[in-house]
Write a structure and sequence with these properties.
single chain, 338 residues, mainly alpha, 17 helices
């Protein structure tokens, strides 16, 4: 790799950390001295939250997307298919869930990935472990949670998301639901010629990572700002303790209600994290909030519509039901422990 790329990237990384470190005092100075707003008012608190979180989340997002974009150059869909092909269930479920964390998955790639797994002979349960893990254990959400709440919350999110993906995939595999694949999927010929992996050098990988930043951040930044605006409103105007009554540990119905509310919502992980932050600050229980977040990013309706092209409705319902049960279990578990 050419050395001049490092001479550009390393100073940029130093500048990034310098700016990130001083975001908090800058946001307070801008909100309470320049504007100026009273820090004791609801408006002042809401604006301060927005001014601080907007650059903070966007800066984390850029760094995360660049790093993950670099990692993904080593985990192409074709290489993932080859890795999972022929693996037994249980071992395959674990490998698929782990690969789902770093392999790109979205609505537009759901159908070709699914077909690729079928062609490669990957068991249906292993395939589902991958399909559950990829959106649910979102690498952007993971790093943003780490930056906002610390390693404990991020680690809990990672561990529980992987547990749901592995367990749900194993259960779906035991149910033997292959007959509920669409007929044209079953007729797909095995042994199709696989595309060869590209040979990339480090310059190519860095170019791909930069391209990922342009494409992904360019698509989601508006959702991020909208999510931060919602979080700012909750932070400034929702009375302290109100969320404890609605989404607290004492309300047994709060976890299923959070899942039901989250499923029809369509948001990316970066957009939902500021809302999660504000809900926790206002007294919502950790388990309830995690269940809400997982439902939003792991069971979105657009993905179900796309997957309907390859799965019959009984298999779609089984998929949603098993994953929803796992999310509910996580919500109740963390509300019980924390």
């Amino acid at each position: 790799m050419k050395l001049r790329r490092w001479f550009v990237l390393l100073p940029l990384l130093v500048v990034w950390f310098f700016i990130y470190r001083f975001l908090k005092p800058f946001s307070e100075w801008l909100t309470f001295s320049v504007l100026p707003l009273d820090p004791a008012t609801r408006l002042g608190q809401a604006v301060a939250f927005f001014v601080y979180d907007t650059p903070k989340v966007l800066m984390l997002l850029v760094l995360v997307v660049f790093g993950v974009g670099l990692i993904r150059t080593f985990f192409t869909p074709e290489r993932t298919r080859r890795t999972l092909a022929g693996k037994r269930e249980t071992v395959g479920n674990v490998m698929a869930a782990l690969l789902g964390v770093v392999t790109p998955f979205c609505s537009c790639s759901a159908v070709p990935l699914f077909l690729g797994f079928v062609e490669a002979g990957v068991p249906l349960g292993v395939t589902f472990s991958f399909l559950i893990s990829a959106p649910m254990v979102n690498e952007v959400a993971l790093v943003l949670l780490f930056g906002l709440f610390g390693w404990k919350v991020a680690g809990l999110y990672l561990a529980t998301g992987l547990a749901i993906a592995i367990g749900a995939g194993w259960v779906l595999g035991r149910l033997r639901l292959e007959k509920h694949l669409e007929p044209w999927v079953l007729e797909t010929r095995q042994g199709a010629v696989a595309a060869e992996d590209e040979r990339l050098n480090w310059n190519d990988r860095l170019d791909r990572a930069q391209q990922a930043v342009r494409e992904i951040v360019g698509k989601v930044w508006l959702y991020v700002i909208a999510g931060i605006a919602v979080g700012a409103g909750i932070h400034g105007y929702v009375p302290d303790g109100l969320m404890a009554g609605i989404m607290g540990k004492q309300a047994w119905w709060s976890v299923p209600a959070a899942v039901l509310v989250g499923v029809p919502m369509y948001s990316n992980a970066a957009g939902i994290i500021p809302v999660v932050q504000a809900l926790l600050e206002k007294g919502a229980a950790l388990g309830t909030v995690l269940a809400f977040m997982m439902a939003v990013i792991g069971l979105s309706l657009p993905e179900m519509v796309i997957l309907r092209r390859v799965l019959k409705m009984p298999l779609i319902l089984a998929f949603v039901g098993v994953v929803a049960f796992g999310i509910l279990a996580v919500g109740y578990l963390f509300n019980l422990v924390f």
